[in-house]
Amino acid sequence: RVAAQVGEIVARAREVEALNLLLADQVRERSRELSTALRRLAAHGVEDEPLAVGAVLAGRFTIEATLAVGGMGVVYAARDTATDHRVAVKLIRDVDGGVEAAHRFLQEAGAAASVAHPAIVRVIHVDVTEDGQLFQVQELIDGRTLEGWLAEVGRMPPAAVAALGAVLADALATAHRAGVVHRDVKPANVMLTRAA
Q1: Are 127 and 135 in contact (CB under 8 A)?
Q2: What is the value of pTM for the model shown?
Q3: Three-state SS for 39?
Q4: What are phi and psi of 177, to 5 degrees?
Q5: Which of 140, 100, 105, 141 is nearest to 126 (CA)?
Q6: Which of 46, 59, 101, 110 has its Cβ near the most Cβ atoms within 10 Å?
Q7: C-alpha span between 39 and 144 (Å, rounded)
Q8: DSSP-derived secondary structure for 150-172
Q9: What are the C-alpha distances in Å from 178 to residues 54, 80, 104, 105?
Q10: Sequence-separated (6 or more) residues with CB below 8 Å from residue 184
């Protein structure tokens, strides 16, 4: 009976892996399609409007709350109605780089979709709103930044630093093997979670 259960778990894991590969292919393909759409939008300009709670993107992602506002855009908590999971939606603002910056964002999203590691946030969807605002959907991480945690507790014990460093090095090595370079690894961009 145990052997049968293990066999079923292994089969399910293979199914999940195959679905993740399919999802990564779809994100890369959609990124290419959006690059073409953005070239068309470049001539018209885009309104830089915040999203309202309840707004639905791509017929699937319902905005629930604003999580953060930064120089590059706004991050929202949302619900994926296809899976009923909470997700993070990153809405990219019209930045100085214009279409070139948007293309770079799409290329990075496509590349990130090809990286699979437990310590790397998964990209779920990339799209453009009806009014031409670029957005990316990622898994929503329940945790806090390393920067915030260090500000509160001060120094980490050496063993915790070594463990964290090992996880970060492994995640970055996985990304590098896929041709992805993060370029902004810092405590504000590292999330600490209770889950492994």
Answers
A1: yes
A2: 0.69
A3: helix
A4: -60, -30
A5: 105
A6: 110
A7: 36
A8: HHHH-PPPHHHHHHHHHHHHHHH
A9: 36, 27, 17, 17
A10: none
Q: What is the pLDDT of residues 45-82, one digit of tens each?
A: 555 567 899 999 988 999 999 998 877 789 999 999 99
| pLDDT tens string 74-103 | 999 999 999 999 999 998 875 555 667 666
CA torsion, points 21, 24, 30, 35, in degrees to nearest 10? -140
Encoded amino acid at 67, one letter:
L
Give me the amino acid identity at 58: A
Specify the residue for token string 């319902």: 62
The residue annotated as part of the active site, out of 25, 48, 170, 184, is 184
State both tokens at 151: 């500000």
Residue 48 falls in the annotated catalytic set: no
Structure tokens at 187: 């405590």
Residue 149: both structure tokens together:
């945690």
